[in-house]
Amino acid sequence: MRTLWAYGAIFSVVGLVGCSGVPEEAKGAPPTVTPSAVMLSISGGIDVAFPDAGAAPDLYTPCTPPPNAKTQLGQEMRVLDDKGTVIGTGKIKGGMTLGHALFKVCSVDFSFKVPGASENYQLVIGDFAPLNYTREGIRRGLSYTETEDGALVVQ
Length: 155
Hints:
The chain is of the alpha+beta class. Helix content is 15%, strand content 41%. It contains two helices and ten strands. The strands form two sheets. It has a six-stranded mixed sheet. Strand 3 and strand 4 form a beta hairpin. The protein is elongated. The termini are far apart. Mean pLDDT is 82; it is low at 1-20, 22-26 and 32-36.
């Protein structure tokens, strides 16, 4: 009788462990997928020409765009997803004087991250017209030149 009771106790414990401690994946059920946060890097630069190369800072020194330029340090940038929702903002950072003796630009840069779940994005830099990109287009990097008439041209 004691042996029968011992076997019963062992089978009961084994049965309880089999029902409660085994993960669903081990029972043949498909694994649950936890979505990961995909972030997209927004990075690039804007070249702003100095109207007078002789009065511009020396090459390869820090600079700020000329006062009459639409591009300015600290200027806000916004990224909108394909639904028109603002998903991130960044600011234009300090620049470096590039070019040569007759033509110099203040090359400013920007870099920030936004959620990357959309396929299409809109980038708004200050008062410039919105720019449309695909996710892949943004991943390639963004490079612009501000023209004399205050427009942005993609390089």
